[in-house]
Amino acid sequence: MNRRSRGNASSLRGPSGVAAALAGAALALAMTACGDRGGSHAEAHETRTPSAQDAPHYDPPVRFAPNGRPLLPTTTATGPRDVSDVVLAGRLAYFQDGDGLQAVDVTTGRSSWSARPGAGATVDGRNIRPALASLGGRQYIIGLFPGELPGHGTTPATPVLELLLVDPATGRTAGDDAMPLPAELAEGFNLHQIVGTDGRAVVIGLSGSSPDAVVVADPAAHRIRWTRQKATPVATSDGLVVVIDAVRPSGFFNIEGTYRLQGIDTATAAVRWSTAPSTADTYQAERAGPRLVTLSGGFDETAGLLDITTGKRRFRYPDQEKLYDCRDDDRSVVVCFTTGRVMALDATTAQLLWELPKDGRTSPSVTAAWHGAVYGTTANGPVVLDARTGRDREASPGAAPALVGPYGGVVKQDRSLVFQAAAG
After folding, report:
1. 410 contacts: CB under 8 Å, gap ≥ 6
2. Distance between CA atoms of residues 204 and 213, nearest Å
3. Residue ranges under compositional bias (Basic and acidic residues) (predicted)?
4. Nearest alpha carbon to residue 167 among 196, 204, 138, 193
5. Cis geometry, peptide bond prior to residue 357 (ω within 30 degrees of 0)
6. CA distance 195 to 193
7. SS3 label, residue 113
8. Any residues with CB less than 8 A from the CB of 358 and at least 6 apart, and which?
9. Which of 299, 307, 344, 406 is the 20 to 30 Å CA partner of 275?
10. pLDDT tens digits for 307-355?
């Protein structure tokens, strides 16, 4: 996903979750019990469409079939508008639409299952990216549904965030809970995002006409742990959420604001570390890897890759005035890039592995990284690089996907999403 998290912007970016020590079975039972309180049960519908068991798959794919097909089945009325709304894992692509959570088998192009929220709230079916994350040691697809519980008599309707937890393979609902929002967060937000989990709770970012806010929700306890305004969550790891703290937000007539990064304990809301405040018109941070966050913009002396647990800089960007995006390959490499420059670093040591342009070679526009491969485009068309060495791995891959899995990649063509099957 290529959404930027900035101190004065409305879009957020979310990471994958972090497993923690909870008894999985006990958590699932507690969540199911909590979901029962809201009203009707969530509904799940499994089509049981056979998968293409012999579909070509590679780890990673470096060539793609020239003729793609629409990612969504023709029977799906609504769906994701952008690649950033989709989660791709194995042969399934997950997304959220007006009806609930959906899973599509990319090898057949057919629906695999659907699950609808049913905790009794009237929900707003927005295209919010679900999260494939771990809670209680079990993997779930987590859907986020803003809405409200109906009022009764003189009691007004209650704004809520409903979290729907679903088994990724079967679509069976494991938890469904509508948690009331504090009054100060009831209005002014039209963008919502799941940023990650701490193994027990789900970290959510809110953005809109009101100042950005972070919500840490605990579905097993049927409650919201804590909230904080003027903070934009960007990453989670090891029991911490990293936020952009707006010390002095930019105003309508003043494009500059003062911001800092902070690491906040997801259990207690205590601030564990903080960078020095920086005055900037653009202050950007996002997840860069399992334990890394990238910070750029604002002429900040701490700009670069920071350790999520300590806030200490692990790598310094050579041109700090530029904005950097990062992708990790879900294995061992983090790729960071800006206009005209691409760098790859070891995800554990943060040591520079390679950079482009160099030795007469140009730098690609990076679209994705996955399992040792970097995907992108140059003036010569799509290209795939080796993530550890930076050498050209495939000069004619047939596509530059934004999402990659063993069975192929997802690209955006005009206003639709297209899946191009792996061919090598």
Report:
1. 71, 83, 86, 88, 93, 106, 401, 402, 403, 404, 417, 418, 419, 420
2. 8
3. 38-48
4. 138
5. yes
6. 6
7. strand
8. none
9. 344
10. 999 999 999 998 877 899 999 999 999 999 999 999 999 999 999 999 9
Contact, 112 vs 103, CB < 8 A?
A: yes
Q: Is the link from the previous residue into 60 a cis peptide, with omega within 30 of 0?
A: yes
Q: Nearest-CA neighbor of 103 among 147, 13, 145, 166? A: 166
- pLDDT bracket for residue 369 (50, 70, 90): very high
Q: What is the three-class DSSP state of 153? A: coil
**Long-range contacts formed by 55-60: CB under 8 A, 24+ apart:** 55/91, 55/107, 55/407, 55/421, 56/407, 56/421, 56/422, 56/423, 57/91, 57/406, 57/407, 57/422, 58/406, 58/422, 58/424, 59/371, 59/406, 60/370, 60/371, 60/372, 60/373, 60/404, 60/406
Alpha-carbon span 256 to 238, nearest angstrom: 32
Q: Backbone phi, then psi, for 369, in 5-degree steps?
A: -140, 135
Structure tokens at 270: 């205590």
